Amino acid sequence: MAGTIITISSGKGGVGKTTTAANLSLALAMLGKRVICIDADIGLRNLDLMLGLENRIVYDIVNYIEGRCRLRQALVRDKRFPELFLLPAAQTRNKDAVGQEDMARVAHEAAELADYVIIDSPAGIEHGFRIAAKPANRVLIVTNPEVTAVRDADRVVGLLEAEGWAPAQLILNRLKPELIRRGQMLDPDTVVDLLAIDIIGIVPEDPNVLTASNQGQPVVLDDRSGAGAAFRDVARRLLGEEVPFTPIKSPSFLQKLFGSHG
Amino acid sequence: MEEIPVTLKGTPQGILLTPRVDNWEAISRGLTLALQDADAFFRGGRVIVELGGRTITHEQLVALRELLEAHEMDLWAILTDDPTTMRVVRSYGIRTRLPAAAAAQREPLESAEAEYNAMLVQRTLRSGQRIHYPGHIIIMGDINPGAEVVAGGSIIVWGHIRGLVHAGALGDESAVICALDLAPAQLRIAGYISRTPEERRRKPQPEIASVSQNRIIAEPWTARG
Question: Which domains does chain B carry?
Answer without folding.
Answer: 6-111 (3.30.70.260), 118-220 (2.160.20.70)
